[in-house]
Amino acid sequence: MVKTMFSKGKIVAKTGNEIMAEAMRQIAPDVVAAYPITPATEIVQIFSQFVADGKVPTEFVAVESEHSAMSATISASVAGARAMTGTSSQGFALMWEMLYIAAGLRLPIVMAEVNRALSAPINIHGDQSDTMGARDAGWIQIYSENSQEAYDNMIQSVRIAEAAKLPAMVTTDGFIISHCMEVAEVYPDADVKEFVGEYKPERALLDYKRPFTLGAIDLQDYYFEHRYQLAQAMRDSKKIILEVADEFKKKFGREYGFYEKYEMDDAEIAIVTIGSAAGTTKAVVDNLRAKGIKAGLIKIRVYRPFPAEEIAKDLSKVKAIAVLDRADSCSATFAPVYLDVVAALYANCGDKAPKAENYIYGLGGREISLEHIEEVYMKLDAVAKGTKKASTQVEYINVRIK
Amino acid sequence: MKKEDKKLTAAELPAGGLLEGGTAENFKTGPWRSQRPVWNKDKCISCLTCWIYCPDSAIKIAPDEKKTTVVTGIDYDHCKGCGICARECPPKVAAITMEEEKK
What we know:
Distance between the termini of chain B: 24 Å
CATH architecture of the domain at 30-97 in chain B: 2-Layer Sandwich
Structural class of chain B: mainly beta
Shape of chain B: elongated
Distance between the termini of chain A: 46 Å
Helix content of chain B: under 10%
Order of helices and strands of chain A: EHEHEHEHHEHEHEEHEHEEHEEHEHEHE
CATH topology of the largest domain in chain A: Rossmann fold
Strand content of chain A: 15-25%
Largest interface: A-B, 22 and 14 residues
Oligomer: heterodimer
């Protein structure tokens, strides 16, 4: 029986999309500008129904493309509005130049993003290549394992973005979470409203008594300093993310950090992954632990900023790890999350770092099962014992190669 | 050679490349003109159409003794000579005409 963690919480059955729309209704942003795309459509569709029914006072702008969606969201934000949007995959890719602009202009936009594979070929199912492709854009990236996390992450992200002055995206795995009905706890409107508070921008274009220009040109003598500021803001956001999580825990009860550690205290082998597959992995860890195998899992929640020192510290005692990426970088070497993890290990652990393997799984919504994950752990077990060598190139799970 | 202003650091710069408004006051763009508008005070009816249309906010206005806003002249430091004011001035009024900018 799922219990509430907040005294005024209510248990509901909602899909990832439904719960993200619900979070948006409670956040009640001033402006939402959006365009539909599978599997994110429902978020803004349900939200627009709330607007039509008078359940939320948001100004909803139905734009003609995702590029326009982000452009309109940016403009609303500069005007002084709390502005949000939602998209996925190709739509997210279409707004790519505007993502960089939102971050460069330091606007606290929050986006609900449903992770879906990028074309070509066209695929509407879940993988993380879309947001992984924008990991350099200067957006905070928070990945959700399930509906509860999606809901809680949306609420926290409003506070995080506004304090850090950085745009933030909250994701769920396409179809797997976005369309999966789950049991989750939601909080009363008044409590969410109190937590997110009022948006008080330092400067707003609608404050015509203090006019300013935003988005001007920089020449060779200033661009670098402005971009340094952006990078520093990302570094500084780590502290803000933990502060908001702390406040969230005090009010609503659930604890959040940069990542979740599952059975990591004495783990000898560990998987690092992001998203819904972490849920599957937890079941595998439980099975292995019952057999006496010291397996653990680190589920990354905050991927940007990347918690390098912290993750290196928590992995340093482990003998062998595998990073499971739901995106392929096509780099001829390794995949995104692996690169960040290994750089962290190299910088912080040096030659004492654990052996690290990289697996790519689940592209285009390809299934990943308990058996697949157990196979990874069995290989890690052998590597830890020295009976097998760690793979020095990326491996693939559940794809027909030959 | 203009003396270089001290360059700001990342810590000193406002976030997001924000620039305070009104910086155009510091730069004379008038010298860009190849034509200049000439305003006839006697013909002008202060309809303010030229003021609305001027892209450089170069039509000067002020309240007169009856507190009515009237045109008082042209800011030649910032007027770029686009000719929109002369074009938009009602044909029956024709209070602004364009002439060649004298060297």
